[in-house]
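Severity: low
Component: inverse-folding endpoint
Summary: output formatting inconsistent between runs
Steps to reproduce: submit the following structure tokens with default settings.
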């Protein structure tokens, strides 16, 4: 039986896929936090390069991937698609289970797909340094690697509780010569405000975003970079789904169920968006976002305009949200602790094209433990939510006897998360 599909370098996608070209509706625009009117692109220019603003707004179907970005992708792409034979056997399911393995990137997750692209477009426009936030540290380490590769600097604000739980990621940022601070910090005005309100706060992504945005606003050669949620971030991640489609064709299989874990929506979006045209042709195909019970934006949040950060500095986005002041409990899947959600995925859920399920921490870790043994990869606590979702569907297939084809995205490995396992 064929277990793996490796593609060659020539199969690295030549463009990013923009789902907006194929949606039968237009998305609600981001709103200016001051005027509450649709955001003017020029205003975003204070913190983002022109090309990324263009990518955020365009409805063009194919955005060419620059040669230099494809060359950097070639360090780890195309990533393998693997038939989870061990998991199928352990569950004794008639379902066929596959996973796309994004954990093989240099920093261990899908995040590098957009980090490289964002660093590149900023550099082309003369920016020398990026500021950003990071939750579990995955995004901070990915952006540090990307900026180092392109000869730029980076300053990272890391959610305090995650920095305490996961110091290894801080060391990785330092290895790539990035600067990293626990957030909230006393280095920014917003950070000082958060600390004054609650000196013992664990921090949150919303607070860290406020700090990083402030740093970018205050300096001309510094831009801000976001690792999830925004349309251009999902766009860059579509290399995952495009490769997966090709690999499923090599296996001569058609997915019945697609799953990914959901924090802000970037690995999920990058994985499933290239399949949206297929979903329009085949109503029965199921597309499922797996989020934690502890931070249930999609299953318990409201669909409305909200800020992306806690201080209310960012544009308002139409999305599923738990409210900008929501501070999630300190669960181990740090990358899934965000109050909001990607506007594209939010709309797809609102239109019932995509669905969401919530998985509790215990179910996620049980799935991770089984997967580590039978597939030989220790998954990131975040990715474990997708594994748990896939297992639910595989068990359902035992009851119905259907040979369902279940494909999920393994967004990252958990080798730096062993404390969480402890
Ligand atoms: C950051 C991260 C996530 C969550 O972010 P999304 O934007 O929802 O993909 C999931 N898995 C891993 C391994 C991560 O690093």
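Observed output (run 2 of 3):
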């Amino acid at each position: 039986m064929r277990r793996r599909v490796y593609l060659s370098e020539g199969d690295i996608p030549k463009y990013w896929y923009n789902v907006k070209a194929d949606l039968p509706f237009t998305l609600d625009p981001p709103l200016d936090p001051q005027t509450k009117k649709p955001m003017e692109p020029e205003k975003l220019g204070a913190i983002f390069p022109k090309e990324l603003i263009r990518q955020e707004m365009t409805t063009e179907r194919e955005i060419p991937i620059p040669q230099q970005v494809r060359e950097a992708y070639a360090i780890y792409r195309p990533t393998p698609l693997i038939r989870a034979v061990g998991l199928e056997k352990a569950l004794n399911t008639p379902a066929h289970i596959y996973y796309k393995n994004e954990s093989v990137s240099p920093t261990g997750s899908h995040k590098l797909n957009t980090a490289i692209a964002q660093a590149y477009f900023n550099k082309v426009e003369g920016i020398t340094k990026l500021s950003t936030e990071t939750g579990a540290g995955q995004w901070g380490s990915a952006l540090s690697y990307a900026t180092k590769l392109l000869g730029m600097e980076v300053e990272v604000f890391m959610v305090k509780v995650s920095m305490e739980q996961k110091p290894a990621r801080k060391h990785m940022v330092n290895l790539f010569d990035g600067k990293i601070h626990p957030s909230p910090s006393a280095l920014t005005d917003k950070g000082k405000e958060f600390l004054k309100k609650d000196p013992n706060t664990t921090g949150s992504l919303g607070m860290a975003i406020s700090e990083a945005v402030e740093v970018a606003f205050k300096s001309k050669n510094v831009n801000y970079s976001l690792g999830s949620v925004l349309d251009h971030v999902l766009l860059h991640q579509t290399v995952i789904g495009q490769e997966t489609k090709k690999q499923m064709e090599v296996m001569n299989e058609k997915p019945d169920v697609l799953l990914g874990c959901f924090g802000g929506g970037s690995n999920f979006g990058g994985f499933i968006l290239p399949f949206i045209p297929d979903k329009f042709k085949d109503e029965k195909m199921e597309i499922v976002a797996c989020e934690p019970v502890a931070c249930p934006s999609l299953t318990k949040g409201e669909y409305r305009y909200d800020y992306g950060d806690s201080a209310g500095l960012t544009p308002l986005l139409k999305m599923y949200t738990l409210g900008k002041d929501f501070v999630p409990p300190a669960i181990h899947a740090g990358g899934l602790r965000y109050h909001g959600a990607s506007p594209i995925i939010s709309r797809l859920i609102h239109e019932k094209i995509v669905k969401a399920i919530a998985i509790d921490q215990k179910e996620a870790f049980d799935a991770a433990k089984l997967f580590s043994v039978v597939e030989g990869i220790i998954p990131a606590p975040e990715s474990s939510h997708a594994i748990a979702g896939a297992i639910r569907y595989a068990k359902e297939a035992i009851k119905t006897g259907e040979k369902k084809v279940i494909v999920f995205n393994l967004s990252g490995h958990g080798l730096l998360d062993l404390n969480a396992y402890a």
